[in-house]
Amino acid sequence: MKVELSKFEDKFSGEIWQRGREYYREGLVGNVSKLGTLIKAESYGNSTYRLTLDLKSGDMKCTCPCDFHCKHLAALIMWLKNNKITEVSFDKLNSMNKQELINALAAILKKHPEMVKYTQKLDDNTIKDLIKKLWFPRNDDSISLFKMLDFIKESILKKPKFELIELFVRKMIDMYEHEPDSNELTDYIDEFLQDIEKIRLKKEQKIKIREIVGEYFEDY
Asked: Going by C-beta distance under 8 Å and a sequence separation of 6 or more, which residues neighbour residue 106?
């Protein structure tokens, strides 16, 4: 990878860098991809966190609770130094005919059946159904859950409706009550509340959402 990574290394303390090295050696960084100057990845462990790194601006973000450059990001830098990254490009797709695209989609769905949701027509009833089916996986792999949460959130925020937002928030709280140790889920709820502040909802509707969350979290 022809990118100078030393400028990113300098942002970490020696202790965090060492912890990141251990994290990388344990194989806890994956699903790394690059589109333009933006790199996205995931880190695994007790929770799954989403990582982003902009090669142009130097910005780095992780969804973990840390308010500094964390071990997850340090591990990502090490991964980039030692592995070949997957470049996301639409050039090949643009050159495919209809049947080739269908065959490619079928191969993806065979390997990742949970992605069939992306082929559905997303009317309100479909979104409601997806929300109602949300639940924490019985194993330690929460990656698919948070991918589904992202998909639903993006769909809701495109054409925000209070009914869908309320249902989504109540469902996430319901999952939290059954998995109270999931810091990532509480972080996700907080991120969603921040997103709500940026969209067109009536003031009383935004207050209502925060009241719903406030019944379970003292900070709201």
From this structure: none
